[in-house]
Amino acid sequence: MSLEAIQQKLEASNQTQLLTFYNQLSDEQKQSLLSQIDGMDFERIDKILKLALETEKQPPSDNAFTPPPQDSVKSVHSDQHASWYSQGLEAIANNKVAVILMAGGQGTRLGSSNPKGMYDVGLPSQKTLFELQAQRIAKVEQLAALKHGKSADDVNILWLVMTSGPTRPTTESFFKQNNYFGLKQQNVIFFEQGVLPCLTESGQVILANKSTVAVAPDGNGGVYNALHSKKSISPSSTQSPIEILTEKGYEYIHAYCVDNSLCKVADPTFIGYSIHSGVDCGAKVVQKRDAHESVGVIALRDSKFSVVEYSEIPSNLAELIDKDTGKLAFNAANIANHFYTTKFLRDDIPKFEHKIAYHIARKKIPTVDLKTGMDVKPDSPNGVKMELFIFDVFPFTNLSLFEVERSDEFSPLKNAPGSKADTPETSRRDVLALSKRYLKENGAVIADDIDIELSPLVTYEGEGLSFVSGKEVVKGGYVKDVEELKTLLH
């Protein structure tokens, strides 16, 4: 887009301040700034800000929160488990299942500048989160192929890895260096989470410096917009992620966050349950540890599904007991682990996206004084960042909830080593404990002081281990395959 066209665009949207220092810039800086402005939809940005500010001012209505209906929640322990598992495995075998990994975050709180998926929590294998998750995909492909008489090459789960600007080059390089962890390169697609400009509350876009617009990631809910963007794959891409999914015939999506070390990627049971339920969106949940655990719960807000943050629920509701179950009424803790139909992501979300209110965070945003040209580091918030959360679509869905065991499926990695919870140490502990439990549930005897790590290629969720029954595991460490496991038995 030419300078003249950019000027017209800025005048039409009252954002001419972005070219205040244009004549002082080098040719390269000029081109970079014009390109950045060219990629911005100021009409959309203005609508997002106005709706966010309006929504923020609306007080919650009385009696706004009610527990989810009983018929919307099913447990992994249901007697229909085997049927759901078979249905999900069949969908995988028929190449109908894809996976979206939200991996845009850096490990800053963990003391690492690398993408969080590259973090090693200290397992005997020294595997990163990316490798653990890739091998779970490989294993479930094998299981589906075996069950349905296909070769492993004929079963292909498409893995869409959503990165961010800062993490994309390192993530792609890491996958290439590690040969995509044994997966087929063509089955891994990288795409990039979007950004939104930082704004004043009156809607003026903020300059970070003379040649750069201040931007911030649009939240993990930005996945919905990124799926529809060709540029999220590359500037020259002829297809968006959602178009690729459609063209290749993938009908069902499992989406999850990279920082859950226990995530059952492409979980056949969850997928089968969601397909059986006929829903366009599903969510895994775990029971709260206690009434006051600081976690968002899935509930009804004004009769619509929503994630209600811990801070929003009064104590009397947080402690409310369901008289039928004897458990907490608000007990469905959200773990950012979702099912979608491709049709819902492709056709339905664009119809209501304009109704979803983004969340506002008032921040101190480094900028430049438009009069003096001096850099400014504000002492108090001078602008807003806006983000969407992945669960913000819930009010527009016919949602089903799938309750799973925390110890089997949820161990988040959020905090630095040595913190109170959600640390590398707790992730390591939980992965090792699950391996040990798989062995014990299959009849093995294993001493408490033995730590053992079963590769996901050995077992996905405890299947295929009947040969350990009645045997003692005499040595711990990392077990890469079934043959190696057999050598550890007595």
TrEMBL record:
A molecular function (GO) held by this record is:
UDP-N-acetylglucosamine diphosphorylase activity
Pfam families recorded: UDPGP
Reactions accelerated catalytically: N-acetyl-alpha-D-glucosamine 1-phosphate + UTP + H(+) = UDP-N-acetyl-alpha-D-glucosamine + diphosphate
The domain of life is Eukaryota
The entry's keywords: Nucleotidyltransferase, Transferase
Residue ranges of coiled coil:
none
Tell me which EC number(s) this protein carries. Answer: 2.7.7.23
Protein name in the entry: UDP-N-acetylglucosamine diphosphorylase
What species does this protein belong to? Wallemia hederae
